[in-house]
Amino acid sequence: MLRSQATLREKHEKEVENLTLTTQPLNTLKLFVEATIQYIKRSISYLLAHGGWFILITTLLVVSGGLLVTVDGPHGKHVEEVLEYVRYGLWWIALGVASSIGLGSGLHTFVLYLGPHIALFTLKATLCGRVDLKSAPYDTIQLKRVPSWLDKSCSEFGPPLMISAAGSRVPLTSILPQVQLEAILWGIGTALGELPPYFISRAASISGSTVDGMEELDGSSTEDSGFMATHLNRVKRWLLTHSQHLNFFTVLVLASVPNPLFDLAGIMCGQFGIPFWEFFLATLIGKAIIKTHIQTIFIICVCNNQLLDWMENELIWILSHVPGLASMLPGLTAKLHAMKEKYIDAPSPVPSHIK
């Protein structure tokens, strides 16, 4: 009897392993649809049995929202404003999810969208000497739409308000609040994108199995497979052997820095039973607050010349202690400033009769 049960269990495990889109596409899609329908039925039954107030409030909100959108009136401009904020929030959160979802294979939306947006706004603010460029907080890069301030000339915003002799025209503390909200929304999306590995690993742990990433890590050989792969495997094994130290603080540290192995940390947290809210809050604070501010401040400092000014001051201080170079520093500094102003200052206006 026990042998037959073991045989059936082994046969079932082999069938599950072979059940993939590449080997059995039709059967896999059929089972996926059946599981989805079953999950929806269970969710509806649960809501009908326990969520009467939730269904009532949701229905009222949907009906009220539909009436506000379809019926014309003086409230139309306020509804449109709310919809703009909703689109703005969903856009940046979706970009964050796309960046972190897929076990490292997601779209690098920071490099494609958020980073260029911060850089363009910083350069524009530095060029115009003011930060009141946006017509509204949602006046940012979005799908099929560019911000209104990007193609405007500085004369349309008015005279510069922030100019100093040191070369740092607009301080960091003035630029950061103008791009802070979209950076935080993007960070919230990256935290949400880290949840699927956690949930998959936790479900596998509850069912008594392990996810593919853990199995590959356990079964990986020590053969030489390249410099980067060898060191990554060492780091993975170190994380696995120190899994007993996984807690709120360690997850917060791992989430607060650019870390390509954070997916593995999420898998391990799910596999070893770290509570959901402990994992999610640490990930949310690390990615949406700490990490995004580090990245945002770095880009602002690079594009606002503050990092260049610091490097220039340090270089001048070092060269001033070199015999024979102290007398050359004033001329060298003047040339550096001239070169920098050449690329920062606004170009001279072109006459209207010239294309």
Describe the structure.
With 355 residues, the chain is mostly helical. It has a domain at 1-71. Helix content is 68%, strand content 0%. The protein has 14 helices and no strands. It has helices at 2-18, 25-50, 52-70, 76-100, 109-128, 172-193, 195-206, 212-219, 227-241, 248-255, 262-271, 276-303, 306-319, 329-344. The longest helix has 28 residues, at 276-303. The relative contact order is 0.08.
Could you write a compact summary of the structure shown?
The chain has helices at residues 2-18, 25-50, 52-70, 76-100, 109-128, 172-193, 195-206, 212-219, 227-241, 248-255, 262-271, 276-303, 306-319, 329-344.
Write the layout of secondary structure elements.
Blueprint: H1 2-18, H2 25-50, H3 52-70, H4 76-100, H5 109-128, H6 172-193, H7 195-206, H8 212-219, H9 227-241, H10 248-255, H11 262-271, H12 276-303, H13 306-319, H14 329-344
